[in-house]
UniProtKB/TrEMBL annotation:
PANTHER family: CONSERVED OLIGOMERIC GOLGI COMPLEX COMPONENT 2 (PTHR12961), CONSERVED OLIGOMERIC GOLGI COMPLEX SUBUNIT 2 (PTHR12961:SF0)
Organism: Metschnikowia bicuspidata var. bicuspidata NRRL YB-4993
Protein name: Conserved oligomeric Golgi complex subunit 2
Domain Conserved oligomeric Golgi complex subunit 2 N-terminal intervals: 30-90
The entry's keywords: Golgi apparatus, Membrane, Protein transport, Transport
Length: 258
């Protein structure tokens, strides 16, 4: 780059200038040659060197002062934190204790929850067993009622009485059958057994089914022999056979007695 160092006709009289910090302010792209030519081309080299050394020394001192000030602040910060270390340590101990307590509480809660579930399950089992016992006792009572009614007024052969007795026996028989099936299904779902049901009630139910079948056969034969008098009773008997799913047995009974 060529520079013409001769002053122009309109330029002021040249005189040397000192280099200051303000000369470098707000300079995006610094070009040393252009800077020296425009501002200090009439300044001697020794003066430029002296100014730059003075600026360098001033900058170094400013940097040292800045570091010292920040270091002082850093030391003060460290001292302030040091006074809090004991508090932080105490808080850490308390947090660890709380964490351990929380863990134990969780264990206790889990154990309590498991115990509560076991108790509820046991309560459900007891309720099921209680209801099952009630059904077995009711079934036993109905079996006794069936036996009592079956043996009641055997000599009374009036059509109205026999029809009413048949209707009641059929109702009891159906009820006994449903409760018996319910208990058998419950026994299949659970391993618990009831000695009273197995040894007493179950045998009684099976016996009653056979006795009712025998009663129907005898009643049908008797009514068939006096069909005019027991016409409605015969229809009731056949209806009972059909309800019990034994229509073929009714036909077989009639054939055997012909």
């Amino acid at each position: 780059m060529d520079f013409d160092d001769r002053p122009g006709p309109e330029e002021p009289f040249p005189y040397p200038l000192n280099i200051t910090r303000e000369d470098f302010a707000d300079v995006a792209l610094f070009d040393p040659d252009e800077f020296l030519f425009k501002n200090h081309r009439y300044t001697s080299l020794d003066s430029l060197i002296a100014d730059l050394r003075s600026l360098s020394k001033s900058l170094n001192q400013d940097l040292l002062d800045l570091v010292n000030n920040e270091y002082t602040n850093f030391i003060e910060l460290g001292q302030s934190i040091g006074s809090c270390l004991e508090l932080i340590d105490n808080l850490s101990v308390e947090v660890c204790k709380f964490k351990a307590s929380l863990g134990q509480t969780f264990v206790d809660f889990s154990e309590s929850s498991a115990t509560a579930k076991a108790i509820l399950q046991h309560k459900r089992s007891l309720n099921l067993l209680k209801n099952k016992i009630k059904v077995i006792l009711l079934l036993h009572e109905q079996c006794i009622s069936f036996e009592t009614l079956l043996a009641l007024d055997v000599a009374d052969l009036s059509p109205g009485r026999l029809d009413m007795k048949l209707h009641t026996l059929t109702t009891l028989h159906l009820s006994i059958g449903k409760m018996y099936a319910l208990i058998i299904e419950s026994n299949l779902a659970n391993t618990e057994t009831c000695q009273f049901f197995d040894n007493v009630v179950k045998t009684k139910v099976l016996t009653l089914k056979f006795e009712f079948k025998l009663y129907l056969d005898e009643l049908l034969v008797m009514a068939r022999s006096r069909s005019q008098e027991y016409r409605n009773l015969i229809l009731s008997i056949l209806q009972t056979y059909r309800i019990l799913g034994m229509s073929s047995e009714a036909v077989q009974t009639l054939r055997n007695k012909v």
